[in-house]
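Lecture notes, structural biology module. Today: joint structure prediction for complexes of two components.
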Amino acid sequence: AQRVTQPEKLLSVFKGAPVELKCNYSYSGSPELFWYVQYSRQRLQLLLRHISRESIKGFTADLNKGETSFHLKKPFAQEEDSAMYYCALGGAQKLVFGQGTRLTINP
Amino acid sequence: DAGVIQSPRHEVTEMGQEVTLRCKPISGHNSLFWYRQTMMRGLELLIYFNNNVPIDDSGMPEDRFSAKMPNASFSTLKIQPSEPRDSAVYFCASSLPRGTGELFFGEGSRLTVL
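The predicted structure, tokenised, for the full assembly:
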């Protein structure tokens, strides 16, 4: 079975501070991991995917198969990063999401 | 393209009433997904279709929920009878055939059952 765990429902950091949103997964196959973001009054949208190994809006995420983790990181948080973040696991044609973490960046 | 289109955006109904949510996927996308979003459980996959055929409905909470996809450009999620615990935001999403794994979401339908 596919399972995604985001242990923090809420995360609050100050502008300029580093951010790390945690994500752990459980899957017996070869995982495809994604981070999706939902800004206020906007649609849920893809932020980044592990296979691309890219940095989007300063965010990066590394797949650690040994720890079954895919944490999202940004060295210096900005106020516009405030949003709901979902980690997602793809496999067997479907995408399973974690519970989400609401990130608030304080000025 | 206007993206995935969902209707209604908001629905307020009374317990026991039938609710029908509608979704138009992006043209050319052959996979369609219905998700439910709540504070407690986050985003839960209810059901998904490939080429209009339901593939996995294991996330459908109970028999009160049903979903159909009569053609490539339309899907419905029906709740009959509705209950207060069904109150949530229901999202529809579509994706390309064997694409990059990216889902394109609609704006959601916020359902309130009194």
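Point to remember: The radius of gyration of chain A is 13 Å.
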